Amino acid sequence: MYRCELCQTIVPAGRRSIKVVLKTRPRTYAPRGSERQERYRGFRGRRPRKTTPYDKGGVGTEIVQEAMVCQSCAEEQQAKQQAEAAAQAANAPVAVETPDAPES
Ligand SMILES: [Zn+2]
Predict the structure, then answer these.
(1) Would you list the domain boundaries of the chain?
(2) In angstroms, what is the span from residue 77 Cα to ligand 1's centroid?
(3) 71-104 pLDDT tens trace
């Protein structure tokens, strides 16, 4: 049993709660890790300790807010997000996908 965070209704026991993402924000990940150091020899000629793999970073989204909601709210939220995505696609006809993505 839990209370839906959107409609504030108490959902009876035995019903699944659904987590929906309410808000996301764009996030740029900075490159991290070290680039491989060639020809480097550590103490007494031993190989240096393995460094963390290099991650070139990138762009993504980050969850700002999410809520535990009931089935009907989840569906509503999903529909809303789909509508928003469609609206965004209509507003920006320029493809956001990577240029080498196969055309469907
Ligand atoms: Zn609800």
Answers:
(1) 2-34+43-88
(2) 10
(3) 999 999 999 989 988 998 888 766 556 667 666 6
